[in-house]
Amino acid sequence: MDNAFYQLYEDQMIATLKIKYPNLNEKALRKTLKNKFEKNFNDKIITLYNSFTGKMSECSLFKLMNSYFDLENPNRPILTGNGCFYKQHHLVKNFMIDLIDDLLNERKVLKKLMLDYENTCKELSRKYDVDQSLVKVNSIFGVFGEGSSYFYDDNCGESITYTGAIMSTTAIVSFEAMMANNLYINDINDFYFYINRTLTEQNDLNILKFLDDDSIINLKTVVSYFYKKIHNKSENDKKRIKEFLMNLSKEDLLRVYYKNNLIEFLENSKITVKLFKKMCDDTITSKKKDKLYNILKNFIYLTNYFIPSRQYIIEEKKRQAVIVCDTDSNFIYMDNLYKYFIRKFNYENNDKTVVNIITKLAEILDNFISKVFKEICTNMNVNEKYHHRIHMKNEFIFSRVMLTDSKRNYATRTLSKEGVLLDKPKIDIKGLQIKKVSTVKTVRDKFKSILKVLLESPELNLMDVYKGFEELEKDILKSLKLGEIDYLVPSNLSDTTSYKKPYTIAAIKGMLFWNALNPYDVINPPTNVRLLNITKNPKLTAKLIAMEEYKPIADLLSSNKELSKYGFEYLALPSSIEKIPEWLIPFIDYDSMVIRHIKTGLVLLESCNIMSLKSSSKKLLTNIVSIG
User: Fold this and answer.
1) How much is the pTM?
2) Which residues contact 377 (CB under 8 A, 6 or more apart)?
């Protein structure tokens, strides 16, 4: 049974078994494995469907797998993330590949121009930023998924989506392992697989030559180390780990221990630390840099450990390196390594040092993840010619990030953009309500000043953040009691016919009440208005109803049954009015006005673990800090 699939299976089994039983007779073992495989492998007849030609054919599962794993065959099929096979690019002309290549090259040129002008000409930089953003490679995805498109094929869309998911989830668990030693080993079988992967990687260096002291790590230390790493373990697993590792040479024992264990390796390798120092000081030669990369490749990187539980790990397990992930990006937390290096090298802690060290670490991450992606591409049978297209790069360096529970809602203090140090740090807000025009400008400005405290204070004091909200509350109350319009809520008002249920719209109700009160200065939609909340307090409402000024409101409510269901809740003021009517000031719903503005920025407090109280319709400010 000489075939690619079986040979791969046999080689991996032999390699794993020989770790524990190094003196096994390999020839006899191969014979036993072959007999077991022939007896237990249950071959199936499967149906292959060609979604382009509409034709179907049958073949055995064994034959298909043999074809897929036959590395000597240049025509072996490409496998994508949803399990769909594609022909190799050289077998069929696919102009989409050429189109994507051209677009990527064009975008690369425009992005370079954008960065060239980043600090010298903001107008040109913005122009080229817009230009590069218009070269939408991602839009080709829509061409495959649009039913009316000539190129429509639902397998193409799924193939792109699920292949991307494999890339992104693999990147996350790989960064977690490499940057934070946050390695996920599910059970004892995962442990065996991990050790096999570590010891069967191609290595050309002896770890003993790079360690200052090879005696500090012994079998007991390594057994304890891996036992703690296993999530689902039994009492006997420590014994199994020991039995599996006890026959390893000193070199191999150290290799499995230091793999993904960067900081501990650096603590025991002055040679490597000196190379890092030269790299951070920009005095490293290309030859020395290659030496550093080779050390890391041999002793730290693990680029071929692909586990099926990646999605579960990302969603359920605590991450220490990749704090945020998106479809095609990872926010990587490097503070631990950064602090290690400034302490080790006695660097001054400032923005320039941050950019310098993090840029160097990002180069190492780029070197690492490119090898991970190369492994994935190789495993999927992608021609090496296209491997370079699958890559990640350092896009931004943030000194601090404010995160929220919502996707793509965050704020950053940006120091560097694609390797270019900004003249001055830039606070960038993504998706947060506090920057939108629907938020009153005075409130917007206040929240931006609070955000600046969050992102720029050397030592973050939660009371400084909380006091900012208290000050805003006082400002809102003071302004409203003076009849000022600064904190009235802006609203777009369309014609009543534009709404299915117009009397549920605050701006419509507010307009009708204003027009009743001011028949000679009516609001005519479409226009912009400012909304004022009116009190619902029974005692105050009774006083309001008794006032002479209220009579037009009473007449309107008695003549309009639909409006009377809601009562006098809002008053809309036209943009020409600069003061709240004095007689209405005592009847403003101050609590609602304050809450309306404060809730826009509660996300700033929640990002600091300061809790907000939630009711069916409101989120209220508290001074309760969530711990844990």
Assistant:
1) 0.82
2) 384, 386, 387, 390
